[in-house]
Design brief:
This protein is 14% helix and 35% strand. With 293 residues, the protein is mainly beta. The protein has a single domain, classed as Deoxyribonuclease I, Chain A (4-Layer Sandwich), CATH 3.60.10.10. It starts with 9 loop residues before the first strand and ends in an 8-residue tail after the last strand.
Length: 293
């Protein structure tokens, strides 16, 4: 991709126009020693189903395409899961329609209903315009929705991909935290998240880190506060993401670590394609040293 110096212009999504002025990264960002621009986004796609109850991947692909993001984290992603998503590989289908690479990290991977069919899987995914150099599906604490009497236990579904963005190594994490009113599981998940991200930082010093996901809690929630010790919440504070038709809270996040500067962010007023709204942010990546968040 050619270096870009971008400003959010009009994001036309389901007839809604949103204009956000953003301090654009330097025009010479592709040169050695200068920051590298990157547009990142997160979207809980509700397994391809909109707030109207209609499964429509064309509609979701249009929303994602309008974001013009280089890297997108997706949550509630079906891969041959059931009839609700027509048995499709939703992650692969969206990647194909957008012309992006994909990495899928299942939370659940179940035997098929009929022998010889693909496994039934559900989880999170990363779409990327850049080659995916490696991918890992980390375990964090979960309370399964597939067990009759679940207990908190380590389970997969905390995805990580490593990218090289114009020479800068980037670790992208995508997650979906527990939805229950009791925050106990989220407390454990946040602790797991911080531990895993710290370990990955130590293994690749100088790599920039991004966390994308549906955290099922608002920024000020006590269980999320430890996250903000190492990460910066890049999203707009005054824009809700859930429920999509009339948001009352912001539970979907783009968060960045040291060496990633945030230039602007938006929650497009998209209310039809999912029960959540997406979040998109323009950032730049420092090339050397730990940098600043």
């Amino acid at each position: 991709m050619s270096p870009r110096s971008r400003t959010f212009t009009q994001l036309s999504l389901a007839g809604a126009l949103l204009t956000l002025a953003v301090a654009a990264p330097p025009a010479f960002a592709g040169q050695p020693g200068h920051p590298v621009p990157l547009r990142i986004a997160t979207y809980n796609i509700h397994a391809g189903t909109g707030s109207d109850g209609v499964f429509d991947l064309d509609r979701q692909a249009a929303v994602l395409r309008a974001l013009d993001a280089d890297v997108i984290g997706l949550q509630e992603v079906d891969v041959h899961w059931s009839a609700r998503s027509q048995g499709l590989d939703v992650a692969g289908e969206l990647a194909r329609r957008l012309g992006m690479r994909v990495s899928f990290a299942p939370i659940y991977s179940l035997d098929p209903a009929t022998a010889g069919q693909p496994r039934r899987e559900y989880g999170v995914a990363v779409l990327s315009r850049f080659p995916i150099r490696s991918a890992t599906n980390h375990e964090i604490t979960r309370l399964s929705t597939q067990d009759e009497n679940p207990v908190p236990a380590p389970a997969p579904g905390f995805g990580e991909v490593t990218l090289k963005v114009r020479g800068v190594p980037v670790q992208v994490f995508v997650t979906h935290l527990d939805y229950r009113a009791d925050p106990a599981v989220r407390v454990a998940q946040v602790a797991d998240t911080r531990r895993i991200m710290a370990r990955e930082r130590a293994e690749q010093p100088g790599a920039r880190q991004v966390l994308l996901g549906d955290l099922n809690a608002e920024h000020s929630a006590p269980e999320l506060r430890p996250l903000w010790k190492e990460l910066r919440d890049a999203g707009p504070r005054n824009a809700g993401t859930y429920p999509a038709e009339a948001p009352v809270k912001r539970i979907d996040y783009v968060a960045v670590g040291k060496g990633v500067r945030v230039h602007g962010a938006a929650v497009p007023r998209e209310a039809a394609a999912s029960d959540h709204r997406p979040v998109v942010a323009d950032v730049s990546l420092a090339r050397r040293g730990p940098g600043r968040g």
